Amino acid sequence: MKPIDWHGLWVPDLHPLEVIIRVSLVFLFVQFVLRLVGRKELSRYASFDLALLFLLTVCMRMTIVANDDSLTTGFIALATMGAWDRLFSWLAYRDHRAARLLEGRSLELIRAGRLVHANLRRSRISQKELLSQLRTHGRDDLGAVHAAFLEPSGQVTFLFRDVERAPLR
C-alpha cells in the first residue's frame, strides 16, 4: 500500500494566478461556443448533447489545470468558475443591456396564430418541431396560439387565445 503524499495533495504545480487565467479563458470560450450553438439545442438533452457536454469537460480539464492534480489547484479552478458565473448573474440582474448580451432575447415564433418564418429559420426550429412543442401543452392547432416565444433558456413559451373571445383575423 502506497502512503499518502500530503505534500502533493495540497502543493500545486501551477502558479495560482496561472490557474485563474486558464480557467477564465476556458470559461469565457466555452460560454461563447455554447452561445453560438444556440438556445434551441440547450433546451433539450438528447444522448448526443449529453455526450458533447461530457466530452467538453474532459477536453477542457487538461486545458484548465494541465497535469496539476493538487486539491489547491482544483479548488482555485472551481472558485474561479463560480466567481465568473456569479459576476455574469449579477451583471445580468443589474443591467438590461448586459442581460441581453449574456442571456439573449426572447424570439417570437408565432404572432396572432401565424408562424414567423424568419425567426423559425434564425432559430433553426422546424414547423414540425414547433408543433411537437405545442402538443406537449395539449394543443395541436396554431390558431389557438396568440403568440409563442423561444426564450433565452431554449424553452418555447406559448400564449394561448382566450377561448371565449372571437378568433383573430
TrEMBL record:
Signal peptide per UniProt: none
Membrane topology value: Multi-pass membrane protein
Subcellular location: Cell membrane
Entry GO terms, CC: plasma membrane
Every YetF C-terminal domain range: 97-160
Pfam families: DUF421
Tagged with keyword Cell membrane: yes
Keywords carried by this UniProt record: Cell membrane, Membrane, Transmembrane, Transmembrane helix
Membrane-crossing segments per the record: 20-38, 45-64, 70-93
Major localization class: membrane
Family designation: Belongs to the UPF0702 family.
Entry-linked PANTHER family: UPF0702 TRANSMEMBRANE PROTEIN YCAP
Protein name, as recorded: YetF C-terminal domain-containing protein
Organism: Corallococcus macrosporus DSM 14697
